[in-house]
């Protein structure tokens, strides 16, 4: 059942009913639409579960509290909470996009995919940081993420402060002063490296940052495989649709060709390929579910787990008679 599983680990009892799949008896297009609608119900369930924020991630005697204490003030729990919050916000945006005011489905041609990628990346980074059982690995990765963020922030500031041909004289003077102010070493990175050294972590590894999302995805996929395809494969697919790739756009669409009045020229109508929208939602929901499970264990807070008790049977499943 994968992402649609309504059985909860540790809760199945011999007295509870068994379920069976009958989806192959349903009309495929109707079933696909029902499964897409069920994903939106899952997003709504997740949003109800987390409410306005993430429960406590750093209970006394938990792994995350120990990580926070070791890396103070660069708390791992803050990084993980931000990952969860960003993934949840992206999933909420997908729910808004995919459900029209009447409650029925609406499928943009490409607009879903960049937001699904955001949800995927946010959960993947959180899982990458807190997934390892070894605290030194968790702490090193948390600092690497923050070193990379500091570098990218400095690069962004430098880009904004470049002189432009139409800048007025006072603008050029202001930018020159700001460039001079930001020309010193990145103090935040210095503090991060100091914390790494004090925590007896590999400073050279921390300094490397996180330069390739693909490496992060591969390491997450080893411990938390996603349905249907590798995490990197799905991410690459979504990335091609976050940019104007003509080939990927054709691959992600159903094409309907019709003749025109001009010989040899056809009209092509593109519509969203529903099974690819479904795969995008599956991966995003799988990752945040895994992230919440791992966070609950690391935080010693079972309430973080997503219980899904408010969800009915997924489409194509029924109680076995």
Structure write-up:
The chain contains twelve helices and four strands; from the N terminus they run βαααααααααααββαβ. With 321 residues, the protein is mainly α. The chain has a domain of 194 residues. The strands form two sheets. A two-stranded antiparallel sheet has the order 1-4. The chain has a two-stranded antiparallel sheet with strand order 2-3. α3 packs antiparallel against α4.
Topology, please?
Layout: E1 19-21, H1 28-50, H2 63-71, H3 76-98, H4 112-130, H5 135-160, H6 169-181, H7 187-198, H8 203-207, H9 213-223, H10 231-242, H11 246-251, E2 253-259, E3 266-272, H12 274-299, E4 317-319
Antiparallel strand pairs: 1-4, 2-3
Helix pairs in contact: 1-3, 1-12, 2-5, 3-4, 3-12, 4-5, 4-9, 4-10, 4-12, 5-7
Order of helical and strand elements: EHHHHHHHHHHHEEHE
Q: What's the shape? A: flat
Strand residue percentage: 5-15%
Strand order of the largest sheet: 1-4
* Count of beta strands: 4
Q: Biggest β-sheet, characterized?
A: 2 strands, antiparallel
Individual helix count: 12
- Radius of gyration, in Å, reads 24 Å
* Terminal residue distance: 19 Å
Mean residue pLDDT:
89
> Regions with pLDDT < 50 over 5+ consecutive residues?
5-12
Characteristics of this structure?
321 residues; mainly alpha; two-stranded antiparallel sheet; 12 helices; 58% helix; flat
Summarize this structure briefly.
The chain is mainly alpha-helical and 321 residues long.
């Amino acid at each position: 059942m994968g992402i649609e599983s309504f059985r909860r680990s540790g809760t199945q009892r011999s007295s509870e009913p068994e379920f069976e799949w009958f989806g192959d008896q349903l009309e495929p297009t109707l079933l696909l639409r029902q499964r897409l609608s069920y994903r939106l119900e899952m997003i709504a369930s997740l949003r109800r579960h987390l409410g306005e924020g993430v429960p406590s991630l750093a209970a006394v005697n938990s792994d995350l509290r120990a990580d926070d204490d070791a890396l103070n003030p660069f708390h791992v729990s803050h990084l993980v909470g931000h990952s969860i919050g960003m993934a949840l916000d992206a999933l909420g945006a997908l729910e808004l996009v995919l459900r029209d005011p009447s409650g029925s489905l609406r499928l943009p041609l490409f607009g879903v995919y960049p937001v699904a990628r955001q949800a995927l990346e946010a959960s993947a980074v959180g899982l990458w940081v807190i997934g390892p059982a070894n605290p030194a690995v968790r702490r090193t990765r948390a600092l690497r993420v923050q070193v990379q963020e500091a570098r990218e922030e400095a690069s962004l500031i430098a880009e904004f402060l470049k002189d432009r041909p139409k800048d007025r004289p006072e603008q050029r003077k202001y930018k020159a002063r700001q460039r001079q102010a930001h020309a010193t070493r990145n103090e935040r990175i210095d503090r991060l490296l100091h914390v790494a050294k004090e925590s007896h972590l590999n400073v050279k590894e921390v300094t490397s940052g996180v330069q390739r999302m693909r490496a992060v995805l591969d390491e997450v996929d080893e411990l938390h495989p996603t349905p249907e395809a590798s995490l990197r494969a799905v991410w690459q697919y979504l990335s091609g649709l976050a940019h104007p790739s003509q080939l990927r756009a054709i691959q992600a669409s159903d094409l309907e060709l019709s003749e025109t009045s001009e010989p040899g020229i056809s009209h092509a109508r593109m519509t969203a390929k529903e099974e690819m929208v479904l795969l995008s939602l599956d991966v995003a929901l799988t990752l945040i579910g895994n992230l919440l499970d791992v966070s609950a264990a690391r935080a010693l807070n079972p309430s973080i787990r997503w219980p899904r008790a408010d969800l009915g049977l997924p489409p194509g499943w029924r109680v076995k008679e």
